[in-house]
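Field: COMPLEX_INPUT
Field: COMPONENT_COUNT = two
Field: RESIDUE_TOTAL = 717
Field: MODE = joint
Values follow.
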Amino acid sequence: MYRYDAIDKEILADRVAEFREQCQRRLAGELTEDQFKRLRLMNGLYLQLHAYMLRIAIPYGGLTSGQLRRLAHIARTYDRGYGHFTTRTNLQLHWIKLKDAPDILAELAEVGMHAIQTSGNDIRNITADPLAGINADEADDPRVWVEVLRQWSTFHPEFSFLPRKFKIAVTASPADRAATKIYDIGLRLHRNAAGELGFEMLVGGGLGRTPYLGPTIRQHLPVRHLLSYMQAILRVYNRHGRRDNIWKARIKVLVASLGAEAFAREVEAEWESTDKAAIDLPDTELARIRSAFIAPAFEKLPATSATFDAAKADPAFARFARHNVRPHKVPGYAIVDVSLKKPGETPGDCSSDQMDLIADVAERWSLDEIRVAYEQNLILPHVKLDDVPAVWKALDGAELATPNIGLVSDIIACPGLDYCSLANARAIPIAQAIATRFADPVLAEKVGKLDIKISGCINACGHHHVGAIGILGVDKKGEEFYQVSLGGSGEADASLGQILGPALPAGKVAEAVDQLVDVYLRERQDGERFLDTFRRTGMTPFKEAVYADAH
Amino acid sequence: MPMLIRWTGQNAVAAEDPFTAVADETDVPRGDVIVSLQRFQTEGQRLIAEGRKVGVRIEPSEAVEDIAADLPNIAVVALAFPKFLQGQAYSSARILRERYRYQGEVRAVGDVLREQAGFMARCGVNAFEAADGSTPREWGHVIGRFRHVYQRAADGRAPAFEERAS
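Field: COMPLEX_OUTPUT
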C-alpha cells in the first residue's frame, strides 16, 4: 500500500486548513449557502434531504486496518454509527453536521485519507480492479497507475472546472473487474506482441440518461506517456465539451457526436504539440510509487490446507467457501469476500462495530489489508487457507459472512430517495424486498450468478444499465415506479440492458424478479448464467412471464 | 482608474489598470484598449500602428490559436470566465504560456472569484479583475495556500516528484 510521505501529508494539511477557513466563513455568515456550495462541493460535502453527506475517497479501494478503524471512529463520533460503501469505492456518511466537517477531514488526514474531488466537475476518485496485485491474470499492478493518476489529478489547475464530473477506472486483467467500459476514461493495461506494457485507452463510456460503452481511441499507449496523453484527452474535453446542457456535458456526448475516430485525431494532434517530457512522470518517481505496492511477505505454504478442507464438513462453511473464497496467486493463500449484503439490510452499509471487527480480522489474518469492491462489498485479500475457518467464524458473528457473492441477493443499490435529493424513487427497500425473497441460501445457490443493480434515478449510481437485471426508479405523477431491464453487463463482456416493458409499481418489483428467475430456471441449459440464457432466448419468454396478467 | 490584482509570482498587489475594455458596439477611445477577438481581427493592426497598447479578449468558445501569430504585438490577453464554472480559459492560459511562450499579461475577467485564484495563477494568469471584492492580501493568501503541487503547469513551480528527486 502506498503510504503518504511528508509532501502528501502537507498537501492534505493545507487542504484541511483551507476548508476549515471556508466553513468558518459560512458559519459566520460571510458566505451564503449558494457561495459556499461550490466550495464544499470540492470537498465531497453535499447537502442532502436530511443533512450534509460527506463522501470520503478510497483510492483504488485500498484500506489498511488503521484506516478502516478511523472510518469506524468517524462514523461513530460524527454520524450515526454506520457508513455506506458506494459503487465508486467511496464511503458516504449521511448525517454530518457542517461544524464537524473540518474536524472529520483532519481526522482523515492523520491516516492519509481525504474527501478531495469526491464531488464537483473535476477528476473524481479513481477506481481499480479490487483484486489488483493478487490475481494471476493481470499484466501489471493497476494500483501503481491509479496512484500516479491520483497525484497528477489532485488539484489539477487546468482540470478542476470541467464541463462535468470525470471518472476514471483502471484494470490490468482481461476479466475487467473495474467496469472500464462504463467510465469517462477506462484504462486497460496489457502487453503488446513485443512484451511492452501499454494502456488500451477507452474514452467516452458512461451510464446516466444516455448510456454508452466506451470506444477504444488508442490500442496501445506506452505506459511512460500516460500523463501527457491524459492531459491531451482532458484538454480536448475541457475546451470542446458541451456546457450548455448538463445532460449533454459528459465526455461521452462529445466522443459520440464527433465520432470516436475524429475525437482520437483531435487528441493525437493535441498530444503531438505537448511537451511530453515536462508532463510525463520521471522513471525515478514511478519506481518510488511502484515500490509502495510490492507484494507483502507471503509465507511459503502448501497449496492445500487440511484445516480448510476439514472445516467444509460444516455445510454452512462449505457454502461460504464456495461463494466467498477465491484463489490467490500465492499458494496456500485465499481471497475472502466480506458480504455487506445480508438480506434485509441496506446494500453497502457497514456499522462502525462491523468496520472495527473487519479491521481486527484484517490485522490478524490478512496482512493488515482490506479492499473495497465496486459491488459494495469488502475483500480480505491475503488470508491463509488455514485461517479461513477462523475468519469465517469471526465474520459470521458480525453478520458479515452471508455466502452470496455474485448471487441474486448480492444486489448493488444506490442510497436512493431514502437519502439522496436527486432520486426519483427509493432503491434500498426494493433491494431488501428482493434479497429477502432469496434469503434461503440453497435457493440463492441454485439460481447461481445473477447481478441485480438498482438506481433510484437516471443518474445511474446503481449501474442499472449493466445489471443482468437492472432496475431504475422513475417518478410517475408522484408515485414510485420501476423500469426493469435485462441483459446488461459491466465486465469483459460488457453490454447495456434492454428494457423489459412498462414500469412496475414498487409492490410488484420483487415478484417480477421472482418470475424472471423462474423463466431462467426453466429455460437455462447446462452451465448458463442468467445473462447467457437471456442472450440466447431473447426478451420474449421473460416479458411474457412478467406481463402475463396484462394480456 | 479601475484597479486590478497583479500576481508577481511572489505576491499579489493592487495595480491601476491603464486599459479600457471596449465593447464591440462602441467607438474605440484613446489610450490602451482591450477589444474583442472579432474586432482585433478587423481593426487590430490599425490600433497597434497608432502606437497604443492593445489587448484582446478571448471568450470561452474562442481559440487562442487564432491570435498565435499576433502575440508579440498583443499586450494583454483577457480570458473571459462568464461564469466561474466555465473553465475553458484554464486551457487557453496554459497554451498561451507553455506552447506559445507568451510573455505578456494574461488577465482573468468575468466571474473571477478568490477560490479560483490558485488554479488560475498555476495556469499562467498574472492579472485578475476580482469580481468578489477580495483584497490583494486575501488573493495572495489563496494562491500561496498549498506548499506543494503535484503536477507541472505554467507557473514554473516544481512538482512533488521533482522535490522528491532533489
